[in-house]
Here is the input.
Amino acid sequence: MAHQVTLKHVNYTYGEKTTVAHQALRDVSLTVEQGDFVTIIGTTGSGKSTLIKLLNGLQFAQSGTVEVLGVTLRPKVKAAALKQLRSQVGLVFQSPEQQLFADNVLQDVQFGPLNFGASSTEAEQQARASLDQVGIPVELLDRSPFELSGGQMRRVAIAGVLASQPRVLVLDEPTVGLDGRGRRSILEMLRRLNQEQHITIIMITHEMDIVARYAQRVVVMKHGRIEQDTTPRQFFQTTQNQFVLPGAVRVGRALQANGVDLDQLPLTRRELVESIVHRLAKGGTA
Here is the structure.
């Protein structure tokens, strides 16, 4: 697998050389490979949002190196290279209304491809394809994006990024404010993009069940540093009381603590049931 994202010893300070300086990133090193599904977690102020802004040149590291899709991101990077990179690294903010602006849904989603050099015909084709991909029905394409539900707005925002056919999708809390159905729909869509199209997903989240159910890797940030970079199963096996654990993980750990030998820590309800059934089939007690 090729490294799509490489950060080496990155530091970033807001208000550098002022009396209110705040170091948001401290000696951060990270690699993300093609097709990874990475979740980034940590408390407010841990550096998560600053980190993702470095990935398409919204901000630049003050020391250390950031390389994304072969482009070294620094203040003097050529405008053409930065524009090309931004077409390949899509960033979806937490609030979709931050990205929606056009009179109707189709115009909004066409903007990205047009901005990155597609013809009007190509842009419309790419926009329609991405809207279909995220499940927005044709009858909504002429409607103002601000008349849509929260879940639909989130989908349109994601479609606007997908229309430029990115290789990396970076999302900041994409399920915040959605009901259960909208939340599941967005997450399953992201899983399909990752598994079927091998789009790399880098997602900030505070929801531990998302980490358990969807992620291949979990990056834990604290005070601007990467404290852990591991698999969800290893993370949930060892983490202490800093995070609210998913129900299946809590039950699995309780069983382990009471001497029940599970083959592995369950991350989901299905895995929990399968672990217990397998344990009983071996003649043990659960």
The chain is about 40% helix and 20% strand. The mean pLDDT is 91. Residues 235 and 247 are 15 Å apart (CA to CA).
